[in-house]
Amino acid sequence: MIPRPANPLVVALDTASLEEADGLAARLAPHVGMLKVGLELAWAAGPEAARRIARHAPVFVDAKLHDIPTTVARAAAAIGRLGPRMLTVHALGGPAMMRAAVEGAREGAAAAGHASPLIVAVTVLSSQADEFVPPVSLAWEAKEAGLDGVVVSGDDVGPVREACGEPFCLVVPGIRPASGDGDDQVRVLTPRRALEAGADWLVVGRPITRSPDPVGAARALLLEAG
Ligand code: C5P
């Protein structure tokens, strides 16, 4: 059973500077459920990024792994050793690759004395307007492969929740405050709409990290979530 998070907010620390990410993490930690280390920060600062950010709050490593199963298993094991709470792979990598990620991450986490991370599959990137494979099919495939949940956005959140039921973790990026613009996100939802549609976790980057008052922006989003 995967418990619903007490605080659903995940802040994406999308910066090339670990110092900047660390400063944001220190200020935002009391207001978030997880902090996300994505490709930009991971490639700029390496594995140290996940270790440093984990001092402040549980870490979501958004690695978006997509390769042959053996390579993904080994990469997932290396990430598992860092002790993240959550890790992503691409659903388009297929069931064998997704299963390899789950096994690799479990082994890596266990070897380093950490709990197994939740492994979730990215269905469609929320900057894409037209997808080629329906997100509901990808989500179902991920569930069948034994993943803990999926990353899904916009109008697909409700249908994926309906198709996959509970417990299945829905991580929703492309969240924007009711008053804000969408940046380059095409599939946007307000926090309230996303939770009503069945989201567990709300991923928010720029509306918080680029705000002159990141803590105020985080608190306002949580208030909106209700
Ligand atoms: O700044 P913004 O709120 O648009 O950030 C969204 C974050 O969610 C980024 O870190 C991006 O990589 C991530 N993401 C996404 N769409 C997905 C999966 C992850 O936008 N399907």
In short:
The chain has ten helices and eight strands. The protein is an alpha/beta fold and 226 residues long.
The coarse overall form would be globular
CATH class reads Alpha Beta
The CATH homologous superfamily is named Aldolase class I
- SSE order in H/E notation? EHEHHEHEHEHEHEHEHH
Q: Given the helix and strand composition, which structural class is it?
A: alpha/beta
CATH topology: TIM Barrel
Write down how many β-strands occur, each being a DSSP E stretch of 2 or more residues: 8
Largest sheet: 8 strands, parallel, barrel
Q: Low-confidence stretches at least 5 residues in length (pLDDT < 50)?
A: none
Would you tell me the overall average pLDDT?
94
Helix content: 40-55%
Q: Can you list the ligands bound to this structure?
A: cytidine-5'-monophosphate
Strand order of the largest sheet: 1-2-3-4-5-6-7-8
CATH architecture: Alpha-Beta Barrel
Strand content: 15-25%
The count of domains is 1
Report the C-alpha radius of gyration, rounded: 16 Å
Q: What separation lies between the terminal Cα atoms?
A: 24 Å
- Total number of helical segments? 10
